[in-house]
Amino acid sequence: MSPTTQISAPTGSGPAGEQATLKPIKLLKQTLGRDRLAAVGAMIIVLVVILAVFGQWLAPFPDQGMGATNASARNLAPNALNWLGTDQLGRDVLSRIIMGANPALTISAVVVAAAALIGIPLGAVAGYRGGWLDEALMRVTEIFQAFPPLLLAMVTVAILGPSLTNAGIALAISWWPWYARLVRAEAKSLRERSYVEAARAMGIPQLLIISRHVLRNCMTPILVQATVDIGTVILAAGSLAFIGLGTQPPLPDWGLMVAEGRGLIFSSWWIATFPGLAIFLAVLGFNLLGDSLRDLLDPRQVKR
Amino acid sequence: MTHVLSIRDLNVEFTDRGKLTNRPVRGIDLDVSAGEILGLVGETGCGKSLTGLAALGILPRGARRTGQVTIGNDPLQDSSEPGGSVAIVFQNPGTAFNPVFTLGRQLSDVLARHRQISRAEGKAEIIRHLSLVGLPDPERVYRSYPHQLSGGMLQRAMIAMALLRQPRLLILDEPTTALDVTVARQILVLIDELRHKFGFGVLLISHNLGIIRDVCDRVAVLYAGRVIETGPVEAVMNNPRHPYTRGLLDALPAGRTHGQRLNAISGTVPGNLLSLTGCAFRNRCSHAVTDCSLTDPLLTETGPHQAVACLQEGEL
Predict the structure, then answer these.
(1) What pTM value is reported for the model?
(2) Helix (H) / strand (E) containing B13
(3) What whole-number distance in Å separates Cα of residue B280 and Cα of residue A148?
(4) 3-class DSSP state of A47
(5) What is the torsional sign of CA A44, A49, A50, A51?
């Protein structure tokens, strides 16, 4: 099939977004070919994933990456041995950035997955059923959404105690309402489609209608949202670590490294700057890809 | 003759927070016998589709049904689940299937709901039904996505889907409106064949009197949520007794010479029927008298199986 046929304008029944999700991998390839920014985003993401998976073999000083100190080489500026310099405990900054990719990616993937797993079913049921159930569920999400997400996460971590796991739990708790509301809005419009009415008329049970016809057709916005959110959660987890409520030293974490280097920013700028750049690039990568996915999968929202 | 559908004093009411807001169907009586096609005809907004949905047992949100609906011998329960032996075919086949699944998958869902059957048997059964409705190469249709098929083919597949439920009553809600004339003709011929073959009754909802005349055995003319005239098709078409039926027939282009204007019925259907007194048609009726605004006419027999709801019936 030629690349242009899949993304051609919708004709007749159903928006193209619904048909476009049929071949996600093929679509991904097309997005990258057409859209330079998306390709940049994808390359960054691939790099982060490689670092996360193979970090301990790629890092020049894996033991320092995990926290081993080296008192003789403190606060060294970038040089031939330590490409990005060393921190105040003599640890190689590059190694710690590489080793920090794994926890950053793991926590964001787990948080987004958990938020989606909680939010999607609740939103689908609320949107499809409507009535008091919808009202009740939406008031609950509003209670969660009334707090700034980071504040809610901070409170949760303060109760549970600071650690990477608890930061993940806290972020998932403050993230799921967004998925619930997203899916609810989609479900509310999908339930009025003729094929849902037809399925109802043919005696298809409600749960099957929700899983088949509603959930399957709102995968597009969920996919876009999840892509962007992985980046956002990296930033949020980094923020929690920065204020001491996430990963605890001596484990590597980009947010924690920025916090550790903060006091030395004027004398040893590399300690805080490079992990900050790592966060920036990772978030940028996911945002670029997410935006391009939205443009491609949902032609109605294209702004260009 | 056994009735596969019998409706007595059917009302459909819309409520908003417990308050009655509209009653678009007001006391309809209908009977459909096995193997018979009853046409339900009327303008937009006269309650045709709601009557069909009410007979199926699924109504839009906020709507409520009162009155008796009996399918075969089983009274319809008050639930959102459709009755067991009724099936419906909707107006627009292009949107009646989910675009992301193959037809085979969607038909399997319906069959699985209706009968306990193995996967292989189910596929064979679906392919048998697809060829039953005259689809060439049913194997390919089984594997196809909706956008790969034409509207006529999709409507046939929709009918196959309805047949999988082994219905005693098939409701067709404007089944040919979205199709072009030749395809529409084929679909109607198919329906006619199938009802003889399987002996189910058909409730055919349409605003097209031409279709009604061609395929129906009996017809019920609806106006503002009421049956205002009913009877055998020939009798109603050749000798309409109600001014509204006459107006509808007058608006048909048949028998006119080129350039001649068609007669339209002036005015529109009243929107809210709650505060209505007297005959709902009186404001558009050229025969209306004072009594029409006071008395709501009842359906009264005027001939064999023919009945009309008009005070002036004898005068016309």
Answers:
(1) 0.78
(2) strand B3-16
(3) 57
(4) helix
(5) positive
Of B87, B90, B99, the CB nearest to A13: B99
**CA–CA distance, A157 with A64 (Å, rounded to integer):** 27
Residue A250 gets which letter from DSSP? Answer: T
- pLDDT of B106 strictly over 70: yes
3-state helix, strand, coil in chain B (%, to 5): 35, 25, 40
The amino acid sitting at A64 is Q
Q: Residue B137: exposed, middle, or buried by beta-carbon count in 10 A (0-12, 13-18, 19+)?
A: exposed
3-state secondary structure A170-239: HHHHHHHHHHHHHHHHHHHHHCCCHHHHHHHHCCCCHHHHHHHHHHHHHHHHHHHHHHHHHHHHHHHHHH
B30 CA to chain A: closest CA distance, Å?
21
Measured CA to CA, the distance from residue A240 to residue A216 in angstroms comes to: 34
Q: Using an 8 Å CB-CB cutoff, list chain A residues near B61.
A: 130
B288 sits in the region (left: phi over 0; alpha: psi -120 to 50; else beta) called beta
CA–CA gap between residue B7 and residue A120 (Å, rounded): 41
Whole-angstrom distance between the N-terminal and C-terminal Cα of chain A? 26
**pLDDT band at residue A18 using 50, 70 and 90 as cut-offs:** very low
- Residues of chain B whose beta carbon is less than 8 angstroms from a beta carbon of chain A are 56, 58, 61, 80-82, 84, 87-88, 90, 92, 94-101, 106, 109-110, 113-114, 145-147, 158, 161-162, 165
Cα A21 to Cα A220: distance, rounded to the nearest angstrom: 7
pLDDT score, position A44: 93
Which among A203, A208, A217 has the least Cβ separation from residue B100? A217
Helices B103-114 and B119-132: angle between axes, nearest 10 degrees: 110
Question: How far, in Å, CA of A128 to CA of A150, rounded?
Answer: 30
Residues 6 or more apart whose CB falls under 8 angstroms from that of A126 comprise A133, A134, A137, A138, A180, A184, A187
- HSE-CB at B121 with a 13 A cutoff on CA atoms is 6
CA A160 to chain centre: 23
Does A16 score more than 70 pLDDT?
no
Model ipTM over 0.90: no
Q: How many residues does chain A have?
A: 304
